[in-house]
Amino acid sequence: MKTMTCNQLGGACEREFSAETFEEIAEMSKRHGMEMFQKGDKAHLEAMNKMQELMQNPGAMNNWFDDKRKEFEALPESE
User: Fold this and answer.
1) CA separation, residue 5 to residues 17, 57, 58, 59 (Å)
2) Tens-place pLDDT, residues 17-73
3) In angstroms, how far is CA 20 from the centroid of its own chain?
């Protein structure tokens, strides 16, 4: 099990997500982002806007995802 924060995943807070795979942690982050979007959380909305800009360039988005996956894989196992 590995742990990353919302901030590490491009978000706006220090909420922690723990999962066995990067895909699982990315899904948790996505659900959290949608929850914050529904609440109208300003900091998260700004982070989402930055991610949407990144999504306009598929190559840049793929690079970002690859970098985050490598960051996840390099993390120590959490307890």
Assistant:
1) 6, 24, 24, 24
2) 999 999 999 999 999 999 999 999 999 999 999 988 888 988 998 999 999 999 999
3) 15
C-beta of residue 29 within 8 angstroms of C-beta of residue 19: no
- Can you name the residues that pair with 19 across neighbouring β-strands? 2
User: Rounded to 5, what percent of the chain is helix, strand, coil?
Assistant: 65, 10, 25
Map tokens 């307890």 to a residue.
79
- Look up the pTM and report it: 0.88
